[in-house]
Amino acid sequence: MTEWDVRKLRVLRTLHERGTVTAAAEALRMTPSAVSQQLSGLSRQLGVPLLEARGRRVRLTDAAHLVLRHADAVFAELERADAELAGYRSGEAGEVRVAAFATAVPALVVPAVQRLRAAERPGPDIRVREAEAAQAYELLAAGDVDVALSLAAHAPTARDPRFTVLPLLADPLDVALPTGHPLAAAPGLRLADLAAEPWIFGGSGPWSEITTAACEAAGFVPEQAHSASGWTAILALVEAGMGVALVPRMASAERQARDGVVMRALDADRPRRHVVAAVRRGAESGPAVARVLDALRTVAAPHTPPPTVQED
To answer: How far apart are CA 83 and CA 85, in angstroms?
Structure first.
């Protein structure tokens, strides 16, 4: 029977994900020579070549891709085994590490933790780490966190065998206007009404993409007058009359702190950002992770409003 070395399989998968030996070594906190040695050893154990030279780089052979397809199933089973053992050792307690983007921490993670603490049964110990939407998946893949809260636009596809992705909520996007704006009290406000306005959003990343996509769906490309990524900075610019911005309804604390900003719902356009939770495939069956996911779903439910019924 062929000998399978899980540690070496992880090295192979990391090389596949990162693309180069140097990048894989950095992700695994190893030296490039150690990565090469691990892969050479795995190739000898399996009796097939896993790498072939391509100029100054290497590429995975067809045999390596075959091995990886089976390795993903192995890793999923190991995650399930770890989850069941954790539940056996500590009931439903234990530790669950959660990575979440900035607005999800106060709106979803903290209420979920409070809900678990108030339960009759002891809940898991939650360790929270704030991370950008795309970074959350890197942390999850590296094993640095157990649950990643991110945006669907940055989620792996359902075909990615490494993760299980669960929808949490559709967070409405409201438009922030300065209080003296001519459209601040206009009835039936639509995004298209703001096509000629100067817009405020980040220069790159998920919020830039979400704002641009929402405006393009409304029929225009927003003119970016100012670039900012934090809600405090964005709303300060809006309050000063320097432009308008889309703001997620989950960012309630920042919104309430600005008296000079008017928040308007866009019921006709109904722009949304979709928030998801992801775990390594197989880990969702573990008692501690399952309780955290259940608490997050419960907290998220009131944040998604029912569809708006349009009048004829």
So the answer is: 5
